[in-house]
Amino acid sequence: MATLESCRCRNNSILYSILKSDTLVTGDEDHHHHHPQLQQQLTVQHLLQKSSSSPSSTSSSTCLAPASVQELRQQPCSCGSTRRRGILRSPQVTCKAASAVLVKTLRFMKNVPCFRELPEDDQLVLIRSGWAPLLVLGLAQDRVDFETTETVEPSMLQRILTGLPERHSEPVAGHGHGAVGVSVVEIEAIKAFLKKCWSVDISTKEYAYLKGAVLFNPDLEGLRCLHYIQSLRREAHQALKEHIRLIHREDTTRFAKLLIALSMLRSISPLVVAQLFFRPVIGTVNIEEVLMEMFYGK
């Protein structure tokens, strides 16, 4: 409990720190030319170097290796709908934009004092759970759109009859590291979330409060400071509601719309986010290893 007692943010509100942190992250992009190291971070070079120096790993739930529960869920059904897969039309452009958003997402976490004062075990649990939804939320805030092209995956019977190799060893032209795409259904879920956010026209402050609600997720196993994290999420929701009450008095459904948008994030798999936005440049490198190195400098 000493950790919780020591976590007292300025202005008597963790949300002040969240809002300030998000403003720093989004507001300092025009000054990167004064900081060469920070500018280098915002490029995809770090991820490209990681792909050539790190071994593949399949021990983590967010590893980019193909063998996983998520991929088993995507196995072809009799109707063939799950065999529809998509790949980025411009992977280098989109992956570079996603990498920049990932850097800002991790910087946002670092700049929230009460997050950094949590036990490191809790930080790791929250990072592993929150990096993907926070990234997609960041894509929405930065208006990062992307196009995909569809490729139909052959059924198991077709593979047997035609002698095609297994899916994980099958390269796609123009997409390195044996990329095979992700389910079109999963891609549509990400696009639906982005369109939802853009249709509501979420403000910078609202994005900050939404990020706080996503970051402090009490519904995870293994949290030592569970009750404190619960209180932080409640405070994020309350601050968002109060902001809407003051700024959008006439829109009585806005708070509900934003909560619906948050609920859409739960259906987006971290594995899918990693495969779609990072696998074309880092291959089967464990995304969690990259995250830990970027966050803690390990």
UniProtKB/TrEMBL annotation:
List the subcellular locations: Cytoplasm; Nucleus
* GO CC, alphabetical: cytoplasm; nucleus
Task: Provide the protein name.
Answer: Dax1
One Pfam family this sequence matches:
Hormone_recep
The biological processes this protein is annotated with in GO are: negative regulation of transcription by RNA polymerase II
Record's family? Belongs to the nuclear hormone receptor family. NR0 subfamily.
Source species: Cynoglossus semilaevis
Q: Which PROSITE patterns match?
A: NR_LBD
GO MF annotation list:
DNA binding; transcription corepressor activity; zinc ion binding
Q: Where are the transmembrane segments?
A: none
Q: Which residues form the NR LBD domain?
A: 43-298
Q: Does the keyword Nuclease apply?
A: no
What Gene3D superfamilies does the record point to?
Retinoid X Receptor
Which UniProt keywords are listed? Cytoplasm, DNA-binding, Metal-binding, Nucleus, Receptor, Repressor, Transcription, Transcription regulation, Zinc, Zinc-finger
